[in-house]
Amino acid sequence: MGKTSGTKQATIVVAALACGWLAIEIAFKPFLEKFRSSIDKSDPTKDPDDVNAAAGSSSSSDVDYKSGKDREINKI
């Protein structure tokens, strides 16, 4: 057995990576399809952290997070 060339080694490495990627795609196909469909259905303009605008409630400074109730703010 002689030395293998760098091109042959690189080809083998790329082929092994491709086979590994294909094996992962096949093994996790149901999960990946569900994940990809949920990404397609998502609305990129909606911010999930912005619950005040969707619920129509008061601003975050008006909420007492310990009791979960709105608190009175004295405005000048």
TrEMBL record:
What stretches pass through the bilayer? 12-32
* Key words, A-Z: Membrane, Transmembrane, Transmembrane helix
Q: Where is the composition biased (Basic and acidic residues)?
A: 39-49, 63-76
Enumerate the InterPro entries for this protein: OEP7-like
Q: Does the keyword Transmembrane helix apply?
A: yes
Which PROSITE patterns is this protein grouped with? Answer: PROKAR_LIPOPROTEIN
In the UniProt record, does the keyword Cytoplasm occur? no
Disordered: annotated span: 39-76
Task: Name the domain of life this protein comes from.
Answer: Eukaryota
Q: What residue spans carry the Low complexity bias annotation? A: 51-62
Instruction: Supply the name of the protein.
Output: Outer envelope membrane protein 7
Origin species, per record, is Cardamine amara subsp. amara
